[in-house]
From TrEMBL:
Keywords linked to the UniProt accession: Isomerase, Metal-binding
Major enzyme class: isomerase
Gene giving rise to this polypeptide: mce
Annotated EC: 5.1.99.1
An MF annotation (GO) of this entry: metal ion binding
Annotated VOC domain residues: 5-140
UniProt xrefs under InterPro entries: Glyas_Bleomycin-R_OHBP_Dase, MeMalonyl-CoA_epimerase, MMCE/EMCE_epimerase, VOC_core
Pfam families assigned to the protein according to its UniProt record, in alphabetical order: Glyoxalase_4 (PF13669)
Lineage, opening ranks: Bacteria, Pseudomonadati, Pseudomonadota, Alphaproteobacteria, Sphingomonadales
Name listed for the protein in its UniProt record: Methylmalonyl-CoA epimerase
Family listed: Belongs to the methylmalonyl-CoA epimerase family.
Gene Ontology annotations of biological process type: L-methylmalonyl-CoA metabolic process
Length: 147
């Protein structure tokens, strides 16, 4: 598997509003997207753009807050009440080929391949197989994708 572009770092938070204020007021973020609900994933999401080279966008920060009682983020926040790094997300050109390759390597894929917050297919790999980091693999978004 060839390492793809680091698309975003997921940060779980008990308060999206407080985290947005932190990135705006303390970290100086100038481009914060509108928060939106993802009921299918049990989260409310807000992307924060970081600057890249030559005026391009860099890696995004994905702020995620639990949405509803069944949110998978509740367990993370129970262990980390202040929030924190939840996952790292890398892009791949072909999600199905990537999943097959990780499975062939014996890496544990968590759940089904599904649509993620960028509107493209994703899956997660178990931290015990990924050097201790919950890892999201996403198909590279098409140009002009929403987030």
């Amino acid at each position: 598997m060839k390492l793809g572009r680091l698309n975003h770092i997921g940060i779980a938070t008990p308060s999206l509003e407080a985290s947005i204020a932190y990135y705006r007021d303390v970290m100086g973020a100038t481009h914060i997207h509108e928060p939106f609900d993802m009921p299918s994933n049990g989260v409310k999401v807000c992307f924060v753009d970081t600057p890249g080279e030559n005026g391009t966008n860099g890696t995004q920060i994905e702020l995620i807050e639990p949405l509803g009682a069944d949110s998978p983020i509740h367990g993370f926040l129970a262990k980390n009440p202040a929030g924190g790094q939840h996952h790292m997300c890398y892009e791949v050109p072909d999600i199905h080929a990537a999943r097959a390759e990780f499975e062939a390597m014996g890496k544990k894929v968590l759940g089904e391949t599904r649509i993620g917050a960028h509107g493209t297919l994703i899956f997660f790999l178990h931290p015990k197989d990924m050097n201790g980091v919950l890892t999201e693999i996403m198909e590279t978004p098409k140009p002009g994708a929403a987030h």
